[in-house]
Design goal:
Layout lengths: L6 E5 L13 H9 L1 H7 L4 E6 L5 E13 L2 H10 L7 H7 L3 E12 L8 H15 L8 E7 L7 H6 L3 E2 L9 E7 L2
Parallel strand pairs: 4-5
Antiparallel strand pairs: 1-2, 2-3, 3-4, 5-7, 6-7
Length: about 180
């Protein structure tokens, strides 16, 4: 299947996803039974879809304003990657508390027929571009996500390919792992 040209739209009504299936049962169940309630409950969330030229919804994602809490080990890792980051003006005010403004990826799913076409990578680029357009008053420094990770499906490898780092060790008692990446 040829990689489609994609068109981003901000949406309000999750019922447009009635025929959307990612192939991940838990995600599809959430999309069809609980996404509408989630969007009503969390008013600061933004719900986007990517459509192809035929107006087929190829992917969906939900973002919100978030706070990324990085413990001392994570901040030490950042200092190894970016010496003196704690002195950079945009990070200085947050460094001691470890609570950084972020764009939170609440949900991200690609239609199963379009997986393996780098559309998820396109979504990460789109989210990065939202920093200045949508979150300019929030001044996010990171993108953060609780990456889905079960024995049947894991999004961790995808996020690692998109330069996300783990903010915690994998806990076998949870189905997600906290991950983040710098926006700049």
């Amino acid at each position: 299947m040829e990689r489609p040209n994609l068109y981003l739209t901000l949406e309000q009504d999750a019922s447009i996803l009635v025929d959307f299936y990612s192939g991940v049962d838990e995600m599809d169940d959430f999309i069809h039974t609980r996404l509408s309630a989630f969007l009503r409950t969390y008013h600061n969330s933004r719900f986007y879809v990517l459509r192809n030229a035929e107006s087929i919804i190829v992917a969906m994602f939900v973002t919100s304003e978030g706070r990324l809490f990085l413990d001392e080990d994570c901040r030490n890792d950042l200092q190894l990657k970016f010496p003196d980051i704690e002195k950079w003006p945009e990070y200085k005010d947050y460094w001691e508390t470890g609570a950084f403004p972020s764009i939170e990826i609440d949900y991200l799913a690609v239609r199963k027929e379009y997986r393996k076409q780098h559309i998820g990578t396109d979504i990460i680029s789109i989210i990065k571009s939202l920093k200045d357009k949508t979150y300019s008053y929030h001044h996010p420094l990171f993108i953060s996500v609780n990456a889905y990770c079960t024995k049947d499906y894991s999004a961790v490898g995808f996020y690692q390919k998109c330069y996300f780092w783990s903010a915690e060790f994998l806990n076998p008692n949870t189905e997600t792992i906290r991950m983040y990446r710098r926006l700049s």
